[in-house]
Design a protein that fits this description.
The chain has about 220 residues and is mainly alpha-helical. Helices cover about 65% and strands about 0% of the residues. The chain starts with 8 loop residues before the first helix and ends in a 12-residue tail after the last helix.
């Protein structure tokens, strides 16, 4: 695995996520932090259109609703949730960061957060379960990784250019995987915000190429099939 500078954005994000989880775990504030900092579609809908949800009208929210897409991205439902996300972030994030540079990398990460919340809200604007986790942002990094480092790319189809075919193929596969995961875990206590994953992935596909073209690429010697 290629090494990255010790002071990297990937390392910072991992440390920040772990520290937030440790604060919640050691203080017993995990649930209050998820309530306050999680992204509630219903809360955003109430803010935009007036209170119509089952959320308490007079709940003393501390975190502004517009910040919750970002605060939710540093909260996790448990140790396994955190560990899985951080594993992917370390392995994939360092490669994408080397390709984009830390500034564009953080821009992509932030765009994944926003797109994940936006698509989740668009699909279920009155959801009464808070979304937590870095999966939406990490989905954007995965999209960039698959797009930038794949050697075996689908060919153009008639007048449709190769890049467009590749984007459509990756989006279709990622959407299919997430829909299958939702079906597999239906009826269980494990809730997966698949539309947040899909939104983050779409942002990664749309932004990866423009971002990498605006940066002098230092491509690591690492490829995926």
């Amino acid at each position: 695995m290629p090494a990255v500078p010790q002071r990297s954005a990937t390392n910072f994000l991992v440390i920040a996520n772990v520290l937030v989880w440790l604060v919640g775990f050691t203080t017993g504030w995990t649930e209050p932090m998820q309530v306050e900092g999680g992204f509630w579609s219903a809360r955003l809908h109430d803010t935009l259109y007036g209170h119509t949800s089952a959320l308490p009208v007079d709940f003393p929210w501390i975190v502004p609703v517009w910040l919750t897409p970002f605060t939710s991205a540093f909260l996790h439902a448990g140790l396994f949730h955190l560990a899985m996300n951080m594993l992917v972030l370390v392995v994939i994030g360092r490669l994408v960061e080397m390709a984009l540079g830390w500034e564009r990398y953080l821009l992509l990460y932030g765009a994944g957060i926003i797109a994940a919340a936006a698509v989740h809200y668009a699909i279920d604007p009155t959801a009464l379960v808070p979304v937590v986790g870095a999966s939406g942002a990490i989905s954007a990094l995965l999209a960039a990784y698959f797009l930038l480092f794949s050697r075996r790319k689908p060919p153009a189809i008639g007048p449709i250019p190769q890049l467009a075919v590749h984007l459509a193929w990756l989006m279709a596969v990622w959407t299919g995987i997430n829909l299958l995961s939702q079906y597999a875990f239906a009826g269980t206590a494990l809730g997966i915000a698949i539309w947040a994953h899909i939104g983050g992935f779409a942002a990664g596909l749309l932004l990866a190429v423009p971002l990498v073209r605006s940066h002098q690429v230092r491509r690591p010697r690492h490829d995926t099939p």
